[in-house]
Amino acid sequence: MITTAQVQPTKSPDRSILRERGQREVFCGLTGIVWLHRKMQDAFFLVIGSRTCAHLLQSAAGVMIFAEPRFATAIIDDRDLAGLANADDEVERMVAEVVQRRPNLRLLFLVGSCPSEVIKLDLSRIAARLDSRMSPKVRVLNYSGSGIETTFTQGEDACLEALVGSLCAAPSDAHPNLLVVGALADVVEDQFRRYFNAMGIERVSFLPSRRLDDLPEVGPSTRYLLAQPFLAQTSAALERRGANRIDALFPLGAEGTTSWLMAAAQALHIPSHRARAVIEGPAARARAVVDRWRSDLEGKRVFFFPDSQLEVPLARFLTRELGVKPVEIGTPYLHRAHLAQELALIPDDSVISEGQDVERQLERCRRARPDITVCGLGLANPLEAEGLTTKWSIELLFTPIHGYEQAGDLAALFQRPLDRQSRLKV
User: Does residue 145 sit in the same domain as residue 103?
Assistant: First the structure.
């Protein structure tokens, strides 16, 4: 079984990084609402934006006509832009309508967008005023989902950062507790909770929680594990509240999940033999399932365009457990402290790039002719037309991929494009 102590780095963590700044090709942070509104069952997301914002959310979420989602868009129109309407009053009126229609609502987010930020609409002030008026029955928070200088997973980071500011302080004499940070599918959260409880970690919470009343207290006694690598601002907010981060690989694949769980056990002073007894069976099963896909993927070459910030942990999983060769691992932002263990396991001959100059990256990708290209939707169809096999990076956010039970599904997500391509060949 692989434990944190047994993982051997392939290179020095201070490797050189190719940094690029230029034209970008990413979704905006509003996209995070698609998975956040499913996770937070008594929350509502009211976007203050344009019709384009509304179309993006409706198309990305695939909302059925008979199902009312827990998000909406307040359209900024010509009257707002011309100053003929009082924007503060309009927002408050729409919030009142949402609360009236949804009596079980406990948490409402006012979500900024590119248009609302361009016209300098102060949603934080509006949210604070509404929160003081409606709390504790309904909490009102604000965050920015704007696509200006951000990538789409930063929407979750901004949302969780806002939540951290609303958490109650843990008593100074509280016993250590574990906080798992990052939106996970309910089935994955339940699996992790069972593992932690079986190890003897009873005081475990998740952020975001499914319901407002389940939000944890936070303070110096809090030890937190990041489930997602793109939560830099949330992590900083937690540490300002006194919480301490547990360093580990991210829970992708058997190796990453083992490192992640064992790091939590060590931080909470759980005997290592007890933790290993809990995870040894699931880890072995995960390795066996992943190995079924190895023959299809071993030796294949993959190129990651910067999009989700999951690129480095995914490359580590593909390299270590499936024998895939990363040509280039592009990521929008590289948080060296959070990814230190991941970076130490990336092969020396793989290029790691931070930021984006899409034209230059396209040129490198075309020269490399990788077997799999992981990219955003905007690049996928043009690259497919050029004969490259692509994988949508956004699917890796919509699909449960964390943990032992999902390790085989994660491997299959990368085999599927190859299978599709072989079927299409005449």
Answer: yes
